[in-house]
Write a structure and sequence with these properties.
This protein is mainly α and about 260 residues long. It has one domain: P1 Nuclease. A 3-stranded mixed β-sheet has the order 4-3-5. Strands 1-2 form a two-stranded parallel ribbon. The N terminus is likely disordered.
């Protein structure tokens, strides 16, 4: 029993490297989305999710990684786009299915043909994946597992570039997810409408445009300076993800 418990702990730690935004970032994105829902969508989602908020279900897809029944979702969290390419140029690339699954799930939810359990799980997956695809390293370059293989120091602690973007920079603020969401500066309505008019493939392409900044790690010792330069990118991407998620959910449930 002790050996089994230790194995589960090790597996849980190993899975942390693949999380998108970490719990705080995902929940902030879910909270932002809730603020953009219309009345009808809020009512429908409250029923589907059995009263749970978008913020709290946003981490479900990471939580079920410990359940082998959901192993088929493992490559849904990310996609791979080589430097200098667009997602459309490599859409057949099997290395990561995040964009395909977002598109597929939106269509399935719009079909109204899912069972209650399928619909509930698909809503949770959609909330999570829209957050993931906006984290620049979930649209990774080939060869370093979305920055997981890029070893760095975060202050004095061993880390990797993916984890820095998922959670290190966010956790270093010491903000709760509500405080983080409230700290994000909303753009004017014209900018919001431009964000809302985009589609998942464009979101993936946007993530690739930040690679120069993301990989500007010098000798690999990261801290205040790196966060000062680039945390605004993370905040922008969480805000865009939340607004776009709310828009998609209104299209599905708010009409």
């Amino acid at each position: 029993m002790i050996r089994k418990a230790l194995l589960l702990i090790c597996l849980s730690i190993a899975c942390l490297d693949g999380f998108g935004w970490g719990a705080t970032g995902h929940r902030a994105t879910g909270l932002i989305a809730e603020r953009y829902l219309n009345v009808k969508a809020k009512k429908r989602l409250a029923k589907i999710l059995e009263g749970q908020s978008l913020a709290m279900v946003s981490t479900w897809m990471d939580e079920v990684r410990s359940d082998s029944l959901y192993n088929f979702m493992e490559d849904w969290h990310y996609t791979t786009v080589p430097d200098g390419k667009r997602y459309q140029d490599v859409a057949a690339n099997p290395d990561g299915k995040a964009v395909q699954m977002i598109e597929k799930i939106i269509q399935e939810l719009k079909s109204k043909k899912l069972s209650e359990k399928q619909e509930r799980e698909y809503v949770k997956v959609l909330v999570h994946l829209i957050g993931d695809i906006h984290q620049p390293l979930h649209v990774g370059r080939p060869g370093d597992r979305g920055g997981n293989d890029v070893k760095v120091k975060w202050f004095r602690n061993d880390s990797n570039l993916h984890r820095v973007w998922d959670s290190d920079m966010i956790d270093d603020t010491k903000l709760s997810y509500t405080e983080l969401a409230n700290s994000l500066v909303l753009p004017d309505n014209l900018v919001v409408k431009k964000w809302q008019a985009t589609v998942p493939q464009e979101w993936a392409n946007e993530s690739t445009t930040y690679r120069t900044q993301v990989y500007s790690i010098g000798n690999g010792t990261l801290g205040y300076s790196y966060s000062y330069k680039y945390f605004n990118i993370a905040k922008l991407r969480m805000l865009q993800a939340g607004i776009r998620l709310g828009t998609i959910l209104n299209q599905i449930y708010g009409k």
